[in-house]
From TrEMBL:
Pfam family for this entry, one: Hydrolase_like
Keywords tagged on the record: Hydrolase
Top-rank taxon, per record: Bacteria
InterPro entries, per database record: GNAT-like, HAD-like_sf, HAD-SF_hydro_IIA, HAD_sf, TPR-like_helical_dom_sf
GCN5-related N-acetyltransferase-like domain residues: 497-558
Annotated organism of origin: Gordonia neofelifaecis NRRL B-59395
Cellular component per GO, a single term: cytoplasm
GO molecular function list: phosphatase activity
Keyword S-adenosyl-L-methionine: no
Name the UniProt record assigns to this protein: HAD-superfamily hydrolase
Keyword Hydrolase applies: yes
SUPFAM superfamilies recorded: HAD-like, TPR-like
Length: 562
């Protein structure tokens, strides 16, 4: 092999060396790459030789780090990869650095790297690699449910194929198996095997192993029940409940909501993006509607926003508050000063919902933000459900300030992670379930922190939005109401249903009833078919083959062709 066999882009990186040295380094890099699979030890010697002659070239240090990682020389890999990262300024090597920490027996360090701001900013393939490394580290720490939540935030569409999908499905199945969720593990090893067209995983072997040893499979004594017949509520130890549109709409309590809350025996948390009320006020409102509730069960976006802000600005800093007295109280409770004018040079602006917010308050916020103030929004819900319909929400007012400043806020409420992490920390749950009616807040928020979710129909989300949902907005379950919590899990799971026939051919979808079904059961079957066929982004033409199908589609907000 010769130096000319090296990738031209890498050759250009070697131009800082004199030609004889560049040619020699190039040959070592070519050999390191060629020998990596058949003779990794010899490949490492070539990588080390290249490094000895060109230690100030980022691609040389990167190659040395990758080869050392492949051989299992973890400390050497960390040193070389960190050097390459410093030289190149790229964070794409962070997953390998974190996995090398695992190799050294330091999984807690791997999780710390995965949770860093630089790692959180990764996208695409690098973000997926980081998540799989983090999940592996959580498994090392005997935290399989945390690993499940980490991986659940990614595209678990069973219809995907290819190595990336197969590796994700395999890792997810492994985490489920370690968590004692054997039936789910079998399903996802099957999905991994189907996706693994290049035979890059051991999914088929693991699947056979699980099935062969099924009679011997045991669940840890402290594991939660896991079967299709188990009541959905019994699958989880804590419910995180949205309020508006989930428990009630305006002054109207939704069917089954009071009973569902009572059945939690005070373990549920009420997670709301509405920052206009204090926890005590939310508690009083819930009690007045018949719910059993305490103030310490309430998690608001005002709390999350104030906590987030306190971690950004200096103690005692001035904060311009656009919102309610409840939001001002949360800001003061964290040792920050509250001001009302941009003339007072606030270090930050925090914006939450208040019916009293108008042009003057929004303009003060815009002036402060343009002057350099940090901007935190408690939430970005564009609408607010009421018994009269959808009113203007905080997100619409945030959009006005964003338009005036050409800036974007840091968001604390759903779907952003701060409020969800705050709720999870307070709950100390092993297996929580988020219950809500909005894909872009409740469901996306659950996916953001890797927990399961139940979408309650009848609130903001309609059938067309559900079918078009990107993976990050897809719930684990769907139901007509909270009565589903006491029904078998299978009643709310996405997938084929015996009462419905759904056929998809590109953007053409045919629906026929086989028995009387509910809007939620049709939503589960229809969404599964559309997502599996990966046609949710199309302008779908849905044909109803009978009157029952047409009526049920209409109940989901879907206009059917006949």
């Amino acid at each position: 092999m010769s130096a000319s066999d090296l990738d031209p882009d890498v050759r250009r990186d070697l131009q800082a060396l004199d030609k004889p040295t560049a040619d020699r380094v190039a040959r070592h890099l070519v050999m390191a790459s060629a020998l990596l699979e058949e003779d990794p030890e010899q490949a490492l010697e070539h990588a080390r030789a290249a490094r000895a002659r060109a230690a100030r070239i980022a691609v040389v240090r990167e190659t040395a780090g990758i080869v050392a990682y492949s051989v299992g020389e973890w400390q050497e890999a960390i040193s070389e990869l960190r050097a390459a990262r410093r030289m190149s300024g790229s964070d794409a090597l962070l997953p390998l650095i974190a996995d090398s920490e695992r190799g050294l027996g330091q999984p807690e360090r791997a999780v710390e790297i995965a949770d860093s701001a630089d790692a959180q900013a990764l996208s695409g393939e690098a973000a997926l690699e980081m998540a799989m490394v983090k999940a592996g580290a959580q498994m090392d720490l005997d935290e399989p449910e945390a690993a499940v939540r980490t991986l659940a935030a990614f595209d678990l569409n069973p219809g995907r194929v290819g190595t990336d999908a197969a590796r994700l499905f395999f890792a997810y199945a492994s985490a489920l198996d370690a968590a004692g969720r054997r039936s789910d593990a079998v399903t996802w090893f099957q999905n991994a095997a189907a996706a693994d067209v290049e035979d890059q995983t051991d999914a088929e072997f693991r699947l056979m192993e699980l099935l062969d040893n099924g009679a011997e499979a045991t669940i840890e004594p402290d594991s939660l029940p896991d079967s299709a017949d188990t009541a959905l509520r019994d699958m989880y130890d804590v419910l995180l409940l949205d309020l508006d549109g989930t428990l009630y709409t305006g002054a109207e309590v939704l069917p089954g909501a009071v009973e569902a809350v009572a059945a939690t025996d005070g373990t549920a948390l009420f997670v709301t993006n509405n920052a206009s009320r204090s926890p005590d006020e939310v508690r009083d409102h819930l009690v007045s509607m018949g719910f059993a509730a305490e103030a310490d069960q309430v998690v608001t976006s005002a709390q999350a926003g104030a906590e987030l802000l306190a971690g950004i600005v200096e103690p005692g800093a001035a904060v311009l508050v656009v919102g309610s007295d409840a939001l001002r109280a949360e800001v003061r409770a964290r040792g920050l000063g509250v001001v009302a004018s941009a003339d007072e040079a606030p270090a930050a602006v925090i914006q939450g919902h208040s019916p009293d917010t108008g042009w003057a308050q929004l303009s003060e916020a815009a002036l402060a933000i343009r002057s350099g103030a940090v901007w935190v929004a408690t939430n970005v819900d564009s609408t607010l459900p009421t018994e009269r319909g959808l009113m203007v929400g905080n997100g619409s007012m945030v959009a006005a300030v964003a338009s005036a400043t050409q800036r974007s806020p840091i968001v604390a409420g759903k779907p952003a992670a701060p409020i969800m992490r705050g709720a999870l920390a307070r709950a100390e749950a092993r297996r929580p379930l988020m219950v809500g009616d909005r894909l872009d807040t409740d469901i996306e928020g659950a996916n953001e922190v890797g927990i399961d979710s139940l979408l309650v129909l009848g609130g903001v989300t309609s059938g067309p939005e559900l079918l078009a949902a990107e993976p990050a907005l897809r719930p684990t379950y769907v139901a007509d109401g909270l009565n589903a919590l006491t029904s078998p899990r299978s009643a709310s799971t996405f997938g084929p249903r015996p009462e419905w026939s759904v056929e998809v051919n590109a953007q053409h979808v045919s629906v026929a009833s086989r028995a009387e079904g509910t809007p939620a059961s049709l939503a589960a079957a229809l969404a599964h078919a559309v997502w599996t066929a990966d046609v949710g982004g199309f302008d779908l033409r849905i044909a109803a083959q009978d009157d029952v199908a047409e009526r049920t589609l209409a109940a989901l907000g879907l206009k059917a062709l006949r």
